[in-house]
Each structure stands twice: as structure tokens, then as C-alpha cells.
Amino acid sequence: MARVAAETKLTIGGREITLLRPDADERSPLRAWTAADRLALDHLAEISPDGGLGNVLIVNDQFGALTVGLAHAEPTVWSDSAAARTAIDANLARNDCHVLGDRVVAGTDMPAGLFDTVVIVLPKTLSLLEYQLGVVASVVHAESRIVGLAMARNITRSSLSLFEATLGTTTTSLARQKARLVHASPNALAPASDPFIAGDGYIADGGVHVASSPGLFSSDRLDVGSRLLIDTMIAADELMTADLALDLGCGSGVIAASLAKRSATATWTLCDVSDLAVAAAQSTWERNKLGGPATFIVADGAAGCDSASFDLVVTNPPFHQDHAVDNALTERILAEAARVLTNEGSLFVVAQRHLHLHTRMRRHFSSVDAVSKHPSHVVIRAVEPIR
Ligand SMILES: C[S@@+](CC[C@H](N)C(=O)[O-])C[C@H]1O[C@@H](n2cnc3c(N)ncnc32)[C@H](O)[C@@H]1O
Q: Contact, 242 vs 234, CB < 8 A?
């Protein structure tokens, strides 16, 4: 049955905007905006009824609720997600607003200018919050207003301490619909931030040097699922015979780098939705002096990769979008894997056993088998993609 995408409407300052969450359909409880988005937009409309917010910077908008809601201010949008940038542009167009053009700044780049209003959705990890607040501190002035937003349960003492230490006096609003705002007043203009460079992560099995970046998945140790996938692949014939291999959702690049170190047969492509993750993956590749000419792509799924172009795809796929479990995201990653795999190729996926991912994989592949098991995780091999 065809799934119907769910549009939701949001009224801000008397104006109705229409938003679509790309993966969600009518049955999905997930929406393109949160109670925190709404609280922040209502607060900004209240304190500045004439819309005079000055030069506005929006950080981590997920689907465009904030950017569309503040479109009149022509905000600069700083986002580390290729998927978010696409969704924001689509929702701007849906509401007859100008698309971002050069007002969008990738996660590894620095927003340029001086901002009077900064609206920042608190990211899932403290490391990304710390990095982003450090950069924000260098592009605000003493009268700038900084508004953080999140569901109240995700505003921790540690995140408030980061606001306080990086920016200055910090207070929180009352909660509304379980969402809360964080208000920070900058003390003084901080010096300009250095351009981003990936840092040291850890040394994985086989002496693989893994780089890190803010917000990266399992940035200080090898994830148990990734280890099981790597160990399984090292023993698999497919690794030795593959010509073109893809690490889908590569994060630090630890899976592809570990496998490239064991077998130089395949030419690798590494892709991830996050600019910061792909920068770490690139650095991991360089640190291990993996001679092969790898390709690094920032993309939603495997966008930018041709259909039926890889004879090996490996993935430790995402199961969450921000804090929420997002089955539709995992489903799309599996569909992307099926799309880019050749008819003769093999996909290897690692997942927690309780998720029963193999059942969902049968929608996309004719043949699906568990090839190695661990108490908590399983590696599943799938062949014969269903087109
Ligand atoms: C479970 S982590 C695995 C990371 C890495 N492969 C490892 O094993 O350490 C999943 C990765 O998928 C990425 N991801 C999330 N959504 C994505 C999307 N729509 N397209 C591509 N990658 C995505 C995340 O940024 C994250 O790096």
C-alpha cells in the first residue's frame, strides 16, 4: 500500500506554516516540528512582535520549523546534516519562502558575521553542544540574545554548565508541553574560532587509528556491533572479491578503514549524513595511510551514488533521529542499500538482535540470513535486491 506523507500545520504569530517530515506518513507519530520549536518561535514572536530580530543564526534545525517560522529574518542556517538541509529547503519552498542558497553553513564550516539572535536546538551529544557553543561565542556580541531549545528531559545540568561556561549568565524558561528554553547572555566577544579539524579518537583492533569529531557515534571506543561486523567481514569471501565497496553511514570510518587494512582488493566509498562524521572518516583514512583512492560523500542515505554500483555494502545503520527511535529512517537506509547494490552483490548489516531487522530486510532482498551472532547483536547478510 502506498504510504501518504503527513503534512502538519503550525501557527506562529498568527501565520500558518505547513511542514512535512520526509520519512513520516499518516500513521507515524513523528512530526516535522517539536513542542520546543513552537515554544521558541512563540517566545521570539512575543519579544519581537515587529519581527526585528536582527541578524539571525539558526543551529541544528531538523526539518525547517524554525527556519520557515523565522524566514522573514532571512536567517543563516548552520546544520551538520545533509538530510536536514534538504528538508529545510523543501519546507521553505512549500511555504513560498526563499530557499537557503548561500545562507546555509555546513557542520564543518564556520558561520560568518555577527549575529543578534542565535536559536540553537540542543544536539544529542554534549561534545557537539560544546563545539557549537564555542563557535557561537565568537559570532555574537554583548547584546545578542541566545535561545537554546529542547524537550525538558534533554536539558541536563551539564548542558546548562556548558552554556554558562562558554557564553555567560544562563537561565531556563518554565516548561510548556514538556519543552523548555535556555536563555544565555554573552559576556564578551570570544576570539574567532579555528577552522574545524578532526581530533584523535582511539586505536581500534588491528592498530587502526580512528579519528573523532564532535557528536560522532562511539567516538572513544569501537562499538560492539561495529566490531562484530568487522570480524565477520574479515572472514567473509565477499571482502576478498569485492571491487567496489560502500560503508553506508560510515561515522568515523572505522569499519571501512579496518576492512581496507585487511584487504586491499576493494575501492571504498564512505558516506554519512553528517559533515563532521565524514571529516572524521577522511582523517581516519589518512591516519592509516590507506593508499587506495577512497571517495567520501556527505549525503542522506547513499544519495549521489549510482544505482546497482557496489558489489559490497556494509552498514551499522542508524536507528534514531536525534533522541527518537525512527523506524522510517532505518527502512530508508535499507532501501538505499538495496538500490546501490549490484544484482550479484552482498549487503552486510549489523543490528541489535531484539530489533529483528531481518524481517524488515526481506522487503528489500530476496535472500536474508544471519551469518554471525553475539549475545546482543547479529550480522545479517542480504543478497538479490528487490528492484
Ligand atoms: C550507528 S552509527 C555507525 C557509525 C559507524 N559506521 C560505526 O560503526 O562506528 C550510524 C551512522 O549513520 C549516520 N546516519 C544517520 N542518518 C543517516 C542518513 N540519513 N544517511 C546517511 N547516514 C546517516 C550517522 O551519522 C552515524 O554516523
A: no
Whether residues 178 and 227 share a domain: the answer is no
Substitution site in 271, 274, 283, 297 for ligand 1 pocket (most atoms within 8 Å of beta carbon): 274
- Judging by beta carbons within 10 Å of its beta carbon (0-12, 13-18, 19+), is residue 2 exposed, middle or buried? exposed
Residue 351 placed within a domain = yes
Give pTM, 2 decimals: 0.95
**What is the C-alpha to C-alpha distance for residues 20 and 65, in angstroms, rounded to an integer?**
9
pLDDT of 193 strictly over 90: no
CB of 34 shorter than 6 A to ligand 1: no
Please report whether residue 194 resides in a domain.
no
**Is 192 a member of any domain?**
no
When divided into structural domains, the chain yields a total of: 2
- Ligand 1 centroid to Cα of residue 333, in Å, is 9
Taking Cα atoms as reference points, which of 310, 332, 307, 337 lies closest to residue 321?
Answer: 332
User: Within this chain, do residues 174 and 226 fall inside the same structural domain, yes or no?
Assistant: no
Provide the residue type at 274 as one letter: S
* Ligand 1 contact, 254 CB (< 6 A): yes
Q: Please give the residue range of the domain that contains residue 212.
A: 199-385
Q: Is the CB of 229 under 6 A from ligand 1?
A: no
Provide long-range contacts, Cβ within 8 A and 24+ apart, for 155-159. Answer: 155/122, 155/180, 155/182, 156/126, 158/126, 159/122, 159/126, 159/129
Residue in 108, 212, 217 to alter for ligand 1 test, most ligand atoms within 8 A of Cβ: 217
Of 149, 184, 219, the position where a domain reaches its end is 184
Whether residue 154 sits in one domain with residue 249? no
Q: Which helix (H) or strand (E) holds 59?
A: strand 56-59
The pLDDT tens digits of the residues spanning 140-163 come to 999 999 999 999 999 999 999 999
User: Are the CB atoms for 383 and 345 separated by under 8 Å?
Assistant: yes
Contact 355, 376 (CB under 8 A): no
Q: What is the pLDDT of residues 300-333, one digit of tens each?
A: 999 999 999 999 999 999 988 887 788 888 999 9
Same domain for 304 and 270: yes
Q: Tell me how far apart the terminal alpha carbons of the chain are, to the nearest angstrom.
A: 16
Q: How far apart are CA 314 and CA 256, in angstroms?
A: 8
63 and 168 in a single domain? The answer is yes
- Residue 50: which CATH number? 3.40.50.150
